[in-house]
Amino acid sequence: MAEVAVIGAGAVGVACALACQEAGLATLLIDPVPIAASEAAASFGNAGGITVSAVVPMATPATLRAVPRMLRDPLAPLSIRWRDLPALAPWLARFALNARPHRLAQVHAALRTLFADSGDAWRRLAQRVPGVSSHLHWDGILYAYRSEAAFRAAAPAHAMRRTAGFGVRDLDGAGVAARVPGLAPMQGGVLIPECGHVDDPAAVVRLMHARFLALGGARCVARVRAVAAAATGVAIHLDDGTQLVAPQAVLAAGIRGGALARGAGLRLPLTAERGYHAMLPEPGLTLPLQLMDGDGSYALTSMREGLRLAGTVELAAPDAPPDWRRAQILVEQASRLLPGLNTQGATFWMGRRPSLPDGLPAIGRAPRLPALVCALGHGHNGLTLAALTGEIVARLLRHRDPGLDLAPFDPARFA
């Protein structure tokens, strides 16, 4: 009999299930897709970054000033699909409110608190899960800028990272070239040594899942249709008509979590922060660390299967057809960044990252259904925050101190 049911088997959901099982709670993990076939999940196709310095809010005055370009240029690093604008309008209005100075400061402070232990949480997980440490690389992240304008535009964001205590180092063009041989001439760069990356995100999730099963965890391959209160905890209704009841449950269902949260009396305005990647199987080079193209706003990460080009944000309906030009343009930009790059055999992918308008995840108990703990809405930081979120959720389910103030991440804050 499961004491905890975790809904969602992405990086966050699997990390939550593993942490609960490790804490001695008999745990059932529910997801419609087998772990071995998870190519549709954001956890499969992300850029692989353990970006512990991601303390810069998405909603800023500069972002708002860029909205006309987002609507005009479908291939911009951050774009909005015209046809989906009416449906996105309420989310965008909330997003804009978070760009006000006082709210910007609050979100920045919340992110600093949340990310402070995210890297060490991954180190702790790697010590407990065989094989994970071989996939983690703590080489830092390098932002490279081709133009002086892009370098200057990024200065406020890097200043926030400095304020948060990260060892942000400015590099001139020669310093960037020394770090990444073969790179086209750069105006400058910024190195953040505390960051790291994963060379195979899907493999890491599979290793966590295998450890979860080895510890006695159970897995149910099924789609959850709804959650509701039950006399003895949380009722979980599956698509096949089956109902499961667990004393406690965790909602980590990604973009689908917004609809499921309604059964707990929650309004979670999730939207799809859609990201694309291009995978180059034989790039002809290996990067010594994760590289960010500061002009194109995407990441280049050497992985076990080749070079992954990933990033950018497309705000659109979750089920809208992919715009594969957004993946193809990454290849064109990377070719300019790395003139010797072999782009033959490129494959493309698109994933739906669940994003809330204030840029903060929803982590905590549902007030109207306290047996349900939410762990979703991590946006493009799901992989970075997965290990830490698992630890927090396991503490909550054992009625322990979560280790940080969860008020900024209250799932009921959008009521």
Describe this structure in words.
It is a single chain. By secondary structure, this protein is an alpha/beta fold. The protein is built from 14 helices and 21 strands. The strands form four sheets. Strands 4, 6, 7, 8, 15, 16, 17, 18 and 19 form a nine-stranded mixed beta sheet that branches. A six-stranded mixed beta sheet has the order 10-2-1-14-21-20. The protein has a three-stranded antiparallel beta sheet with strand order 3-9-5. It is globular and about 65 Å long. The model has no long low-confidence stretch (mean pLDDT 94).
Quick recap:
The chain has 415 residues and is an alpha/beta fold. The protein is built from 14 helices and 21 strands.
List the helices and strands and how they pair.
Layout: E1 4-7, H1 11-22, E2 27-31, H2 42-45, E3 49-50, H3 61-65, H4 67-72, E4 78-80, H5 85-97, H6 101-115, H7 118-128, E5 136-137, E6 141-145, H8 148-153, H9 155-163, E7 169-172, H10 173-179, E8 188-192, E9 196-198, H11 201-214, E10 218-221, E11 224-230, E12 233-238, E13 243-246, E14 248-251, H12 257-261, E15 271-280, E16 290-293, E17 298-303, E18 306-316, H13 325-337, E19 347-355, E20 362-366, E21 369-376, H14 382-397
Parallel strand pairs: 1-2, 1-14, 2-10, 4-18, 6-16, 14-21
Antiparallel strand pairs: 3-9, 5-9, 6-8, 7-8, 11-12, 12-13, 15-18, 15-19, 16-17, 17-18, 20-21
Helix pairs in contact: 1-11, 1-14, 7-14
